[in-house]
Each structure stands twice: as C-alpha cells, then as structure tokens.
Amino acid sequence: MQIRHTLPILAISGFLFASYTIVSSNQPLPIAPVAAEPAASPYKSFIAGAGIVEAKSRNISIGTALSGLVTRVAVEVGDQVEAGTPLFYLDDREARAELAVKKADLARVRAGLIEARAMLRDSKSLSDLVESLADQRAVSSEEVLRRHNTLRISKTRLNSAETAIQQAEAQLASTQTTLDLLIVRAPVSGQILQVNIRPGEFAQAGFLTTPLMLMGNLDQLHVRVDIDENDAWRFDRHSRAVAYLRGNRDFSVELTPAYVEPYVIPKQSLTGDSTEQVDTRVLQALYSFDRKQLPVYVGQQMDVFIEVRNQPDNSDDAAI
Q1: pTM of the entire structure?
Q2: Which of 126-130, 152-156, 227-231 has the lowest mean pLDDT?
Q3: How far apart, in whole angstroms, are the C-alpha atoms of residue 3 and residue 13?
Q4: I need a surface site. Which of 15, 109, 132, 255 has the fewest CB within 10 A?
C-alpha cells in the first residue's frame, strides 16, 4: 500500500518541480545598470565622430637607419628630451676599428702629398736650370727632354696625391657618418611615451610593427577625429566642436581647429592595430586643446561632436 501511494506522490512532486523550473527560467533578466552614460551633443545639428588623442607632433615611431646590437638605452618612459638627445646606442666596435684604419690611410696619403710636392719642386728646379742656360748646347737635347718629362710626371703625381687625399677624407667622413648613425637621437623635442628596446637586444632597421621607441611633443595635444565620408559635405572646419572623455561625460573641452587632412582614407579601428580596417572611408580632422584642461593620455579615445550650421534640423545625425 505504501509503494502504491509513494509513486504518485513522487510523480506529482517531479511535475511541480519541473513546472517551477520552467517558469522561473523564463523570467526576464534584470537589465544591468549602465557603467557610464554616453555623451550627448550640445548642438541641435551635429556630426559625431570617434576621436583619438595624439601628440602635437603626432606620435613619432623611433627607428634606426642601421641594424645592430643595442649596448645602452639612454632614456626612460616619461623623460623629456630635446632634439638631438641620444636615445639609445648600437654596438660601434667594428665602425671604430674601421675609423682607425681610415685615419691611418689619410695620414699615409698626406705624407705622399708632401713627397709629391717635394718631387715637383725638385723637378721644376732642374727644368728651370736648363731653361736658364745661356748656351743651350751645354746640355744635350735628350737631357732637356728628360727633365721636362720628369716635371710633367711630378705634376701628375701631385694631382694624384691630392685626389687620394680627397678620397681618404671622404672615406673617413663615411665611417664617421656610420658612427653617428649608431647613436639614435631624438628628432624633435618631446616626451618619451614608450621604450620597447633593451640593452642586449637586436635593433632591426626598416619598418617595424612595434616601434623601438615612441615619442611626441605633448606641449599641446591633438584629437584626430574620423568623419564618415557621408558627412564630409556637412563638415565645416570653422564650426564649433566639443570633445567628451570616453567613459565620463562630465569631462569635456572645447576644441580649436588645427588642420584637416584633405584625403579620405579607409577607416582604421581604434584598437591600436593599424592593420585592422572596416568598410568605411573617413575624412580626418585634427583639433587641438590645452592638455591642462582635461586629464587625458595619448592614445585615449574621445567622443567628438562638431556643430553643423545652416542645415535642416531633421537631417540625420552621424553616429559614432
């Protein structure tokens, strides 16, 4: 009797539990609160675009003209440097050895120049002595011819020695240039943003996906704004513009037009990888602002709104 009543009770209990599970799982999930409210345009008609902060001088990727082993890195991230300041040094032992050889070659050809000049003076003296004789019969014509030829040979040797001097000096200057190129210097005054090279590592010349160093002039910051090509005709560089800090719309700054790059290019994603692209072309406009007005860093994204003047209010506003 107990088994006969237990099985229906278990079946009913299972049915009720399954029904409760189905009903509870179909309940709508609560909407998660927004971490940060998106920025809103202060203008009635506007163009919206994503902007990225960069240095006034643009972000300069430091490379090297010659490949070599890094022996010393002279700067650290955050250092303020002047134009021409050494950033890092490459191994110069081979170049210095070659420089010593070139200096010795220059000293040798200079000695040869002194010798050629002495021989020319001697040959000219002997030739002038023959020419000054009152009686030309005192010296055979063969001797006169020999002395004239010796003078010509001496002049040729002097010209050759002078040419050798120029060649040796050029080779010495070439080696000195190589030594100078083994010291990578700052092209402009600015701040070091990244250091991606360490002593003992090999610095490769040419294009690199990751630059050896990154620097820029941060006296004033620029915002590079991507304007969709469909909105390019609505854009006026003299219109007002404002930028909001991505993630906190309470931070904003009025922008001053810097310049527009008059070439529409494929839009690049702002992930930092310059090889990623989408099927959109954009016009890039740059605006400047005082870095003291906003706590931003180079590479940070901003929401930019550019006022559109003399446009109907019902026109579609561009999305970021």
Answers
A1: 0.70
A2: 126-130
A3: 15
A4: 132
